[in-house]
């Protein structure tokens, strides 16, 4: 076999059986590329999680077709061992053929408890290494070392000095390469065994990207002060009041390290510090970490970010994680551009945006469906978020969770307010990530998915309203074993005294899961007349008033695990004409129109070549979106708005942030 997927795909030949039941304890079938290939072969995948939900979609979409004599290629996936398949309903067992796949069959000589923790995106490299080196039967530690060496490119035994250690950690964390806890623990164990890094906080900086960059941030001013001391030929006392132990001065100037430094500052992973005494002739990689009082620094940073994003736009074959990582860079650039930049840079960013959104739209049409059933450990989509929170509760007793949904907050607008939140609360630690919103990117579709923890297919009666969110949120948590008194929900927030606002919703001693909607950003957007730049300014002004910071701080003080996300982003658009269709469209938005049949949608689409007929993935019956592409809108020709509903990267990829307090 050329790759591990062939082992599975060989069993899936179209039109052999209308129903295939698969025991898949290791979630192999929902791996992105495999799910994509199965979809291309005409197979529909459904996970059997909730029996009632499964029965609803099974009877409605498939049994009805079989009764009419139609053929399907339906695959029902269960996260169980093959011996447990017999617990399924009799009608399924009688109708379908049965298959079983697991990691042990793919990697027979490696330790199963180790490889099952590995992200499925790493299986390709591991499979190739297994073929090339044909290892004998391995135990846990040998398997860990084999994976570290051949999957992550780390030969732990050969890391003998601080340059080599820094280089490996920079490579991992800059590229957002995450490894399972048991592998990071093994790496730390080997490094500790050599004894070269006894003062380093390895247990913190090896597994945690945020802590590693904080470790670097503490030592950057010391490095600059050393440069000043050498320039002035005088002794200078260096500030060494560090939170994280380790060497006071790091070799930032080593050629293997400095290649990362300017990118880290340009992309916002490190924050420049004030050192006006340093000469203007200092190398550019050092100057990237020195804060400038004028706008010159932002211009330089904008130019560098433009270069970075142009080289790193993902392609149609990329994984969703590649797009999420890129979206963070794109958001950093967007935040800079909308804070003021030269006309030339603005024009260049618009050109890049047009091209990348065309690529993104094509990628979505190919891969979006494969995201729906990915495991919620690192939520790929918004409906995974409450499932991830529920897992946190299951693994850590007495955990309380608070989910803040800032309606309409784009990723680049999050970047714009992130620094304000830090200035208002210096003890705040933010673990930033991103996730995919539901398409169409409408509040009634995507925000409900957050609070329901389900795909929109399961709430057809409320698809055009948000009035059922409270009930959906409560139903989700009651299904996880919480009582009605354990659950809280409130919307319409954004101003006022936080304690008073939450008085009728939050019982700190009792409420274990609270969902909160802050709708101030959405209100700003729908009243915006000054474009994206004006919206950035108003959102910053609102954030400076302190409500969001107070809300986060209050929840942390009440011992909640606090998360923030958004139901959709937004994009500045220009009108390309408004359809004259009477009552044909059931929803008539600026970036999306919804039709009851594909025929009616196609009729309107003929006159609007900038629009795409979006396949109704995960949406209720009779719900067919026509979405605007690029930065076009269904409004009067030439008019401008800031809107949402479409499939641009600015609308679809939204922030997902966890807040914590710095340990004293």
Automatic annotation (TrEMBL):
Against InterPro entries, the record matches this protein to: Alkaline_phosphatase_core_sf
Q: What is this protein called?
A: Uncharacterized protein
The source organism is Methanosarcina lacustris Z-7289
């Amino acid at each position: 076999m050329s790759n591990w997927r062939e082992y599975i795909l060989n069993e899936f030949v179209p039109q052999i059986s209308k129903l295939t039941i698969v025991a898949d304890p290791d979630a192999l079938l929902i791996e992105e590329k495999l799910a994509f290939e199965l979809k291309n072969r005409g197979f529909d995948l459904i996970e059997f999680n909730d029996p009632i939900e499964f029965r609803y979609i099974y009877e409605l979409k498939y049994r009805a077709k079989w009764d009419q004599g139609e053929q399907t290629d339906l695959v029902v996936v269960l996260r169980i061992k093959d011996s447990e398949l017999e617990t399924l309903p009799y009608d399924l067992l009688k109708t379908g053929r049965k298959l079983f796949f697991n990691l042990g069959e793919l990697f027979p000589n490696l330790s199963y408890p180790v490889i099952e923790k590995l992200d499925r995106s790493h299986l390709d490299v591991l499979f190739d290494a297994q073929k090339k080196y044909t290892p004998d039967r391995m135990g846990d530690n040998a398997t860990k070392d084999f994976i570290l060496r051949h999957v992550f490119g780390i030969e732990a035994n050969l890391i003998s000095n601080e340059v080599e250690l820094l280089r490996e950690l920079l490579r991992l964390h800059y590229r957002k390469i995450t490894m399972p806890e048991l592998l990071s623990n093994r790496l730390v164990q080997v490094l500790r065994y050599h004894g070269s890094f006894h003062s380093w906080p390895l247990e913190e900086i090896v597994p945690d990207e945020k802590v590693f960059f904080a470790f670097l941030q503490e030592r950057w001013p010391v490095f600059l002060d050393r440069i000043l001391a050498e320039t002035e030929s005088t002794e200078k006392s260096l500030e060494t009041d560090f939170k994280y132990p380790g060497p006071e001065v790091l070799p930032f100037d080593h050629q293997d390290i400095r290649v990362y430094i300017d990118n880290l500052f340009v992309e916002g992973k490190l924050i420049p510090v004030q050192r006006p005494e340093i000469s203007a002739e200092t190398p550019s990689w050092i100057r990237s970490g020195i804060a400038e009082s004028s706008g010159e620094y932002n211009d330089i940073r904008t130019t560098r970010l433009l270069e970075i994003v142009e080289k790193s736009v993902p392609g149609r074959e990329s994984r969703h994680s590649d797009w999420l990582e890129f979206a963070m860079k794109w958001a950093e650039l967007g935040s800079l551009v909308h804070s003021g930049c030269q006309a030339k840079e603005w024009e260049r960013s618009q050109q890049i945006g047009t091209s990348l959104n065309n690529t993104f739209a094509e990628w979505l049409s190919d891969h979006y469906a494969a995201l729906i059933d990915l495991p919620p450990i690192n939520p790929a989509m918004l409906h995974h978020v409450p499932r991830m929170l529920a897992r946190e509760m299951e693994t850590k007793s007495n955990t309380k969770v608070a989910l803040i949904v800032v309606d309409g907050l784009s990723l680049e607008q999050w970047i714009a307010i992130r620094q304000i939140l830090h200035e208002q609360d210096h003890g705040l630690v933010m673990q930033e990530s991103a996730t995919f919103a539901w398409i169409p990117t409408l509040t009634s579709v995507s925000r409900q998915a957050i609070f329901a923890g389900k795909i929109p297919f399961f709430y057809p009666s409320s698809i055009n309203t948000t009035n059922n969110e409270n009930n959906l949120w409560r139903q989700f948590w009651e299904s996880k074993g919480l009582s009605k008194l354990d659950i809280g929900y409130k919307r319409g927030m954004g101003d006022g005294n936080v304690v008073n606002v939450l008085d009728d919703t939050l019982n700190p001693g009792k409420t274990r899961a609270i969902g909160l909607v802050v709708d101030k950003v959405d209100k700003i957007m729908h009243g915006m007349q000054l474009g994206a730049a004006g919206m950035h300014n108003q959102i910053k002004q609102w954030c400076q008033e302190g409500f969001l910071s107070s809300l986060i701080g209050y929840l942390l003080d009440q011992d909640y695990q606090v998360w923030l996300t958004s139901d959709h982003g937004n994009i500045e658009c220009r009108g390309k004409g408004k359809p004259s269709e009477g009552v044909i469209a059931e929803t008539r938005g600026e970036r999306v129109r919804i039709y009851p049949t594909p025929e009616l949608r196609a009729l309107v689409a003929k006159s609007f070549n900038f629009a795409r007929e979006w396949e109704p993935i995960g949406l209720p019956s009779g719900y067919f979106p026509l979405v605007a592409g690029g930065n076009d809108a269904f409004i009067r020709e030439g008019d401008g708005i800031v809107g949402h509903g479409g499939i641009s990267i600015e609308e679809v990829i939204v922030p997902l942030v966890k807040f914590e307090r710095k340990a004293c």
